[in-house]
Structure prediction request, 814 residues.
Amino acid sequence: MGNNAIVGQSGGPTSVINASLAGVLQACQMRNAQHVYGMQNGIQGLLEERIIDFSSIIGSSMEVELLKRTPSSFLGSCRYKLPDFARQPEVYEKIFAILDKLDIGYFFYIGGNDSMDTIAKLSEYGRQVNSKIRFMGVPKTIDNDLELTDHTPGYGSAAKYIGVVMKELIRDATVYGNKFVTVVEIMGRNAGWLTAAAALARGEDCEGVDMICLPEIPFNLDRFMEKVETMQKEKKSLVIAVSEGVKLEDGRYVCELSEDATFVDSFGHRNLTGTARYLSNYVAARLDTRTRSVELSTLQRCAGHLTSRTDITEAYQVGGAAAKAAFEGHSGEMVALRRLSNDPYQCTTELVPISKVANLEKKVPMEWVNSYRTDMTHDFITYARPLIQAELTPVYIDGLPRHIIMK
Amino acid sequence: MGNNAIVGQSGGPTSVINASLAGVLQACQMRNAQHVYGMQNGIQGLLEERIIDFSSIIGSSMEVELLKRTPSSFLGSCRYKLPDFARQPEVYEKIFAILDKLDIGYFFYIGGNDSMDTIAKLSEYGRQVNSKIRFMGVPKTIDNDLELTDHTPGYGSAAKYIGVVMKELIRDATVYGNKFVTVVEIMGRNAGWLTAAAALARGEDCEGVDMICLPEIPFNLDRFMEKVETMQKEKKSLVIAVSEGVKLEDGRYVCELSEDATFVDSFGHRNLTGTARYLSNYVAARLDTRTRSVELSTLQRCAGHLTSRTDITEAYQVGGAAAKAAFEGHSGEMVALRRLSNDPYQCTTELVPISKVANLEKKVPMEWVNSYRTDMTHDFITYARPLIQAELTPVYIDGLPRHIIMK
Prediction:
């Protein structure tokens, strides 16, 4: 079998996805992979044979350090869904021909649930054609919605970013002492893990957010207005965290109520935006208060200047563990994180069958939501707090964090 | 004359305004001011006698350090414009009666051009009634639009934030390799200093932003579209920085073209928002490209986790210099920053007459804009780069930056 490795990145970027790339790269090099290749823009670029050889790109250990600190996907990404191989075998034949030409023995794909679908299909097809190539999935998503893993690399840093900026926005919003409602829109289509992270802001030095609206909980505009009105009698400045994916009881997204168009990508995802704006306008039209909407937008997924060291370390580890497993003969699996204890926080890696992860979404458990459905319980904080611990300082050059990019 | 000092904060918050407060506080204490008072919510709170004594609030040097690192205005802020004293002398009589009751000898106001109007009026009224109270202005604004000072405390940190997030957004926006236009909306009603800071992103490791639209330059939608179309033939992912205040040649704000309401505050400022969204929708409707709008919103002015050490040091210095000047007999002046050299960067403080600062706005000089009016020249970079140098690490506790708040 081939002694070369190839790695790709897929799905939405995170601020630590390149730490997983560094983990795969270094572990393959340590195991004497002759060449480690990268596919540009994931499986889509592989099909177009847009392939780089890492040896000519990442040489020094300084470059590896910069790679760990560079947000977004160094290799580029894609949202390409592989067709069913019964229907379009030619796509698979092409991919395997390219892999054979490159003498690939180890194939790594860093991504979320859609990307794990790619690994599931490739490894299944490989098994049917008796390929020796080993396929491993490396988890990554700020959404934290992968099954069978305690959490996903990328979530800790995004959660830390959200905790930090919620504290800052709360400070900013109280400054005039007037009636004010700030609605902050946070990513997470169907799973509210990121929005829940707004609960981390509360502490000795921060009042915390006043309401958290998860996509798991049907949203009722009247109840929302009632809560806002009641709360504002006690406290002038309210800060509310809403998921971009909150839906009405009839299944429509709240953002669909606004005038802006929505559209559907090739995975069937809607591009959701405008939820916070809709809600802040809704409040402003009905209550005597100033309002503001803030969308954390892509800022929350690419904030390389504000990562969790715990997260970036684990991102690196899952990359290395995937390489180790592949070289030891595993295929068709994903590296998962298993929490051993909370205090002290200890976490290890394990392997899980890829078919049990692909295309599934893990939601926030309802036991971690308070009885009013407006806040997270202590159990959620216990779960999330360890994931945002410690920082990895960027390498600042001339005032800005240094990145490494493909030239 | 009174031996007590009082200090207030006014206008929009910044991430370093509390460093100036710390500077005033410590310099007054060193000069043996008996009491240093703080007015809550600026002059508005003073009129309502909402006053705190710092001795009961900020004691330890650790608390002073936390104060320097806490974004937004510790004392709260206001946007209260003092009436003309010829018309409403009773407001001034009330203020001076309260100051006399507190035995105030030194009065400090940290703010932007509107706040300097407050200092100008109070010191002028004081002169007319032979008050011994000394009034000093301490400059603060992320907008960098104050006259007679090389730059304003608050600008360097906001500029650094903008440089950092533009680099991150550029990385994020290139990831799929598809046609994509990202329009980023940056604060600055009439002066484009903050939007110009997007030019700092370009470097060895970053392509930089593709277009910068300042409010100083009349905006033409057709020319904008033409440039976007031309540029996208060469480069698929474009990132464009626009000021919230860009105006058409006929004087209307671009954001007024959208459906969203605008309103006017008591200083006559419009609340501008929706420029980036309007432009990204405009592009999406006319070109075959995906688009996204990102509003940096209040995130850019309260990012205490990402300050410039140069800025925070200078913010502290201008506070101290104001106290020193007041104790030495000055009144009716503002502390300004005067740049001595660029390389090495050296900057000192000086005093300027408050009447020459109040209510004026310093714009970006047109010599610092390129001939296409789409980018900044090297001279701007030479001006801005020193202001974003070095970092002040937050005190992270349990994963989040620690602040200090009024209990």
User: Anything to note?
Assistant: Chain A touches chain B through 63 residues (CB under 8 Å).
